[in-house]
């Protein structure tokens, strides 16, 4: 296709050049247009998916590029027209190239070499995506130059009460001042606050799959705040790439395993979000399970409805709450959400079912733990913080089968 034909095809489809995109109403919700970077000569080379800064406007430092969520950021950013990775860190893997750790990135030759956090230089960086283990992140973010936009995927800035952090994470909070300014990044619920945030605490994967259906139902007082029972299941990538016996093939395959029973560290995060929605204390029973699959997450939630409320009322409320949302989808009545159907995408699919027991309902929600549960939601948030339409670069359809 010649350049002029290519351009006219794109213009005909309503695409904007990137400076038009930036000066249009930035951060506008559910903008479905496709944005393309300006390119004066469109050779096959210039059409290859690329990751480094090159023509891209926002220079991103990716901390923890050698982990699973870091790799997912790299995959998603390959198609992002405005964000390019200019700095990438690792710990044990510092000094290596990304393709030596992830051979599926062999085409991404222009990505920087992984360096240790101490050797990373942030002078030419606009934004930071922090994909490090919880407990390491507060010190590292504290030392970053002011003025950078930061999305932290770890749990280090999610709990507003620093004593609660200490109780559940077993160490004192090392950046309480930063905690005060951190905004909780459950995009569909805190979009307005995220727009002006400097530091966003990206939610945990379980809390994302649980709060998305429950927050609107709690806000509208359709369900009781007690007796909420949550049974969640995660693929093994949720535990990261580090070697652990529990993640060996032999330990995972042909079975499921409950863990963190009664004391999983996501409980305070889930209760914080639900209590904020209720304006009073909400407690939940939560049990996560490790499943023999690489990615995907399902939360099955059992609730007691307020007097006189039916499952149809819950369904209608979720329909209203999410009808304009691009990434949260209430399925047709009776259709069971499956992890298969969101795999590799930034979607959360959900549905509500009347329980056989009167007065109760069962809600099922599914996400991909690495996308809406981590890196996809992080990019959705960074898009908003940098003034781009929040779906930019996130137009991945689910990967099935
Ligand atoms: N996996 C998931 O589904 C989700 C994860 N999260 C959170 O995102 C964060 C990253 O998770 P994930 O990618 O799965 O984890 P991984 O274990 O796969 O990756 C961790 C990354 O951090 C680096 N790292 C490890 N220790 C240190 C340290 N002390 N100082 C600096 N860098 C270090 C690792 O480098 P190296 O490879 O060199 O050791 C690696 O790049 C975690 O906080 C996790 O809880 C949130 C939602 C979902
Ligand atoms: C399967 C598995 O191990 N999952 C992780 C949760 C992943 C996640 O969202 O955790 P963060 O709070 O660390 O971001 C866990 O249970 O600890």
Compose a concise summary of this entry.
By secondary structure, this protein is an alpha/beta fold.
Folded structure, characterized:
- The chain has helices at residues 3-12, 18-23, 68-77, 98-101, 137-142, 162-169, 176-181, 187-195, 205-219, 249-252, 267-278, 311-322, 371-386; strands spanning 16-17, 35-36, 58-63, 83-89, 114-115, 127-130, 149-152, 183-184, 199-201, 228-234, 257-258, 284-290, 297-304, 328-330, 348-354, 360-367.
- It is an alpha/beta fold and 401 residues long.
- It folds into two domains: 3-203 and 375-386, NAD(P)-binding Rossmann-like Domain (Rossmann fold), CATH 3.40.50.720; 206-368, Dihydrodipicolinate Reductase, domain 2.
- The strands form three sheets. Strands 5-4-3-6-7-9-8 form a seven-stranded parallel beta sheet.
- The longest helix is centred in the C-terminal third of the chain and has 16 residues, at 371-386.
- It starts with a helix and ends in a 15-residue tail after the last helix.
- The structure holds NADPH dihydro-nicotinamide-adenine-dinucleotide phosphate and N-acetyl-L-glutamyl 5-phosphate.
- The site of N-acetyl-L-glutamyl 5-phosphate (X2W) has 10 residues, from strand 12.
- Keywords: Amino-acid biosynthesis, Arginine biosynthesis, NADP, Oxidoreductase.
- Pfam families: Semialdhyde_dh, Semialdhyde_dhC_1.
- Pathway: Amino-acid biosynthesis; L-arginine biosynthesis; N(2)-acetyl-L-ornithine from L-glutamate: step 3/4.
- This is Semialdehyde dehydrogenase NAD-binding domain-containing protein.
Using only CA atoms, what is the Rg?
21 Å
Bound molecules: NADPH dihydro-nicotinamide-adenine-dinucleotide phosphate, N-acetyl-L-glutamyl 5-phosphate
- The SSE string, one letter per element, is HEHEEHEHEEHEHHEHEHEHEHEEHEEEH
What is the global morphology? globular
Strand content: 15-25%
The top level CATH class name of the largest domain: Alpha Beta
The whole-number mean of residue pLDDT values reads 89
The main pleated sheet reads as: 7 strands, parallel
Distance between the termini: 32 Å
CATH superfamily of the largest domain: NAD(P)-binding Rossmann-like Domain
Low-confidence stretches: 1-48
Report the count of strand segments.
Answer: 16
What proportion of the residues is helical, as a percent range?
25-40%
**Which architecture name of the largest domain does CATH use?**
3-Layer(aba) Sandwich
Structural class of the secondary elements?
A: alpha/beta
CATH topology of the largest domain: Rossmann fold
């Amino acid at each position: 296709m010649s350049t002029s034909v290519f351009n006219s095809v794109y213009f005909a489809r309503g695409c904007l050049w990137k400076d038009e995109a930036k000066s249009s109403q930035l951060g506008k919700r559910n903008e479905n247009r496709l944005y393309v970077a300006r390119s004066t000569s469109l050779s096959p080379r210039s059409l290859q998916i690329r990751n480094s800064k090159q023509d891209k406007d926002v220079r991103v430092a990716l901390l923890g590029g050698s982990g699973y969520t870091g790799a997912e950021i790299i995959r998603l950013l390959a198609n992002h027209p405005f964000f390019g990775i200019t700095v990438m860190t690792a710990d044990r893997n510092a000094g290596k190239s990304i393709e030596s750790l992830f051979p599926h990135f062999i085409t991404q030759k222009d990505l920087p070499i992984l360096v240790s956090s101490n050797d990373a230089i942030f002078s030419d960086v606009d934004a930071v995506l922090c994909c490090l283990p919880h407990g390491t992140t507060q010190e590292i973010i504290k030392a970053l130059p002011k003025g950078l936009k930061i999305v932290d995927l770890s749990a280090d800035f999610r709990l507003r009460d620093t004593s609660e952090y200490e109780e559940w994470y077993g160490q004192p909070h090392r950046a309480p001042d930063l905690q005060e300014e951190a905004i909780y990044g459950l995009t569909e619920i805190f979009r307005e606050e995220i727009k002006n945030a400097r530091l966003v605490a990206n939610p945990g994967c379980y809390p994302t799959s649980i709060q998305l259906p429950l927050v609107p139902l709690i806000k509208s007082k359709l369900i009781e705040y007690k007796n909420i029972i949550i049974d969640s299941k995660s693929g093994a990538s949720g535990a990261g790439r580090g070697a652990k016996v529990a993640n060996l093939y032999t330990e995972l395959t042909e079975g499921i395993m409950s863990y963190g029973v009664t004391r999983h560290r996501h409980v305070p995060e889930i209760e914080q979000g639900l209590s904020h929605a209720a304006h009073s204390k909400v407690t939940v029973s939560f049990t996560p399970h490790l499943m023999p699959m690489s990615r995907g997450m399902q939360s099955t939630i059992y609730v007691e409805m307020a007097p006189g409320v039916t499952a149809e009322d819950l369904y209608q409320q979720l329909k209203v709450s999410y009808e304009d949302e691009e990434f949260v989808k209430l399925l047709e009545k009776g259709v069971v959400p499956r992890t298969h159907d969101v795999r590799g995408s930034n979607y959360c699919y959900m549905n509500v079912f009347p329980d056989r027991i009167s007065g109760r309902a069962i809600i099922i929600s599914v996400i991909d733990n690495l996308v809406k549960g981590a890196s996809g939601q992080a990019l959705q948030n960074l898009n908003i913080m940098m003034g781009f339409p929040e779906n930019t670069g996130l137009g991945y359809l689910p990967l099935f089968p």
